[in-house]
Amino acid sequence: MSFPIPQHDHRACIAEAMNAAEVECLRVGARLTHIRRRVLELVWESHQPVGAYALLDVLAKEGWSAAPPTVYRALEFLQQHGLVHRIALLNAFVGCSHPGHDHAGQFLLCSGCGMAAELEDGTIDRAVIATAASLGFTVSRQSVEIEGLCPSCRRKGDAP
Ligand SMILES: [Zn+2]
Ligand SMILES: [Zn+2]
Ligand SMILES: [Zn+2]
Fold it and tell me: Cα of 13 to ligand 1 centre, how many Å?
């Protein structure tokens, strides 16, 4: 995997994500209703995590009579089905690039452009679980959020 570069064919990312969401909902017999689908599309609009209020704004402009609870419920559904992850640090949501299996959320968050990339590195969660276990602690859920600069923001920083 690589960090998303600023100019890439993001329509392909959206298409792939929506397809994966449909497959996953079909697999578990969940319904991807209009509002759930639209919220997922909006989360996938970019690789920058998006907050619930920003989503509400867009939905209101689009003429959805979406009250906050509707959007929260849609986000909850998407989270439960592993289609989006919540980034606690930013109180925002980002699309999961590989739904359909249980995994710990591990994210690189660029403080330059605001983009996020998901890692899926088993050695990280195993290390967390083992270290916690050495303290007699059992991990039920883990999320790793790492802040820094992505390759293109680093290059911008190097430029004179
Ligand atoms: Zn993309
Ligand atoms: Zn994920
Ligand atoms: Zn960046």
Answer: 5
